User: Fold Galactose-1-phosphate uridylyltransferase from Microbacterium thalassium.
Amino acid sequence: MNMTEFETPETLGAGVVKRPTRLADGRELIYYDDPGTTLGAERGIDTRDLGPRPDTATMRRDVLTGDWISVAAARQNRAFLPPAHLDPLAPQSETNPSEIPSLYDVAVFENKSPSFGPALAEAHGDAPAAADAPQGLADLDAPGLGRSRTSVGRCEVVCFSPEHSGSFGTQSRTRARTVIEAWADRTAALSALPGVQQVFPFENRGEAIGVTLPHPHGQIYAYPYVTPRTTSLLRAIDEQGDDLFTRILDVERASERVILAGEHWTAFVPFAARWPLEVHVLPHRHVADFSETTDAERDELAPLYLRLLRGIDALYDTPTPYIAAWHQAPVHTGRDVVRLNLQITSPRRAADKLKFLAGSEAAMGAWIGDVPPETAAERLRAAVESVPEVTA
Assistant:
């Protein structure tokens, strides 16, 4: 295999080393090496003969709700539960022309069939400008039927490990800290792209959630608008006050719903949980997104988050499906009032039962809780306490 050596690696927090390169079709690939990694500086060159990237998708506005719907037909071609020897997120081999040329610790790359991008509102590096790009939130919020815009932005895949199966919770403390550093670095970089309004790191885990790759990985979406969920949150803050997250944290920390608490973070089942398994994690001070967290906050988050996920898995004899969603403040608005927070949700309501969204939830957005939050917190706290503290 042809090899390349990175001439300008960058050392980030906790000793993580960042090594950027490109895939054969020009997509960005970034290796994030663990501190003390056994990997050398050289990495393989992607020599695949790849066709052109799909055109940037188009989004359409639902005039009844104001939501923008990205119509990304190229996503129909993505891999679906491939065998281990054809894992597209494993390091390339002679028999597996995967997306990542070399063995890695953590790797981040642009999605081959993204929901947003690669075009941006303005040309940036080798990313083209969209022909009909939104120029701001005022344009997006304007009324009218039949409105469409180019789905500018960026979608990235974050590989937590070269192993074929697992999740964030199966990683070591060191590896978890490397992933957190990657989230912070990518949040800052994606927030600076033209047209990007919000950056969203997340992990989908389990076939019951719709996961099509068992490889331990997450994603990062950089949206060209402020998402509906965050728009609702901003309205709530306008109504309740700019200190809403501070007051939420005070109330939850004084409740029986706390699962784990450290110097910098608290995990709890929220007062009005929708899902049978739902946990939120809040930092103790106001930070808008991962890029604003300190080394000390990231250092504590790694073992706390791992223990929480391992406790969730300890509830039953088989791994628990979930969505782990890192809600961050928009890039250009609300940064002094919207606090970074994690929301983990799972439809699992028993060992062999899932909660499916029926008419009230799916059609009307009127939720019915199956499990009292205090009961869920008691069970989850016991499960977490059965898991050893994460030391390695």
